[in-house]
Amino acid sequence: MWRVADNQAQLELPQMMAALHLDRPQMGVAVSQVTASDLRGTHMMQILAADDSELALQRTDTYLRGTDLIACYENTAHQVRLQVYWRALPATEHAIGGVELVVSVNTECWVREPRLQVGSQVRANEVRLVTDHETPSRHLPVADTWTETSGNLGGALLYRSPEQPTFLEMIDPGEYTRLTLAPATTPDGDKVSSRFRVFEDRLEKGVIRRVRLRGLFLPRQSDTTAALACYRAFRESELPLTV
Description:
The protein is mainly beta. It has one domain (2-236): Beta-galactosidase, Chain A, domain 5. The protein is 6% helix and 55% strand. It contains one helix and 20 strands. Strands 1-2-3-4-5-11-18-17-14 form a nine-stranded antiparallel sheet, with no helix packed on it. Strands 6-7-8-9-20-16-15-12-13 form a nine-stranded antiparallel sheet. The chain is globular and about 50 Å long. The two termini are 19 Å apart.
């Protein structure tokens, strides 16, 4: 599972390898390999500033609990505390493996606005929106930047690329206000980035707010059927009591 040394964490699952820079959560979980596929350049479960500026977080604590890697941060610019869980997800009937991100925010001030974005950057030439209904999934544009509010969407995106596992990204539709998909040209090739706007409401002293983002890799064959089953399971599950 997770191994931590200084500010670096390594994740090893039977069919997946990844790494995390604990002082740069905006980079997310850097996936290097899934099954026999080289996925270097894939960054999932990122935490980003709402305005795409550099997110300045000071890490105050790090520890392991079972399959969870937990880090605590102070956002001194906004006087907001973050507790972040990266939960390793082993293989299931439908998924090869993945990571779940849970972000909790609180403040000691009377009112703060902790606006953030969560998302991923993956290699894909096709993105589909998956709902929890028995309806065909919908293609989303990947060639240009595309934005939509949560009221018009569900909460599951299926990223496809030839000859590699499919990536499924899931969030509860009620936990974000806007989704932006954008093409990204990087040294590792062309990718698609997702940005879910979260924590838009004001945060009061003593209140804790949470958001959960789950990323799974699926076998390319029958990935739509597997994505539907995984999304239903995600929607029916609740946050663990440890969070």
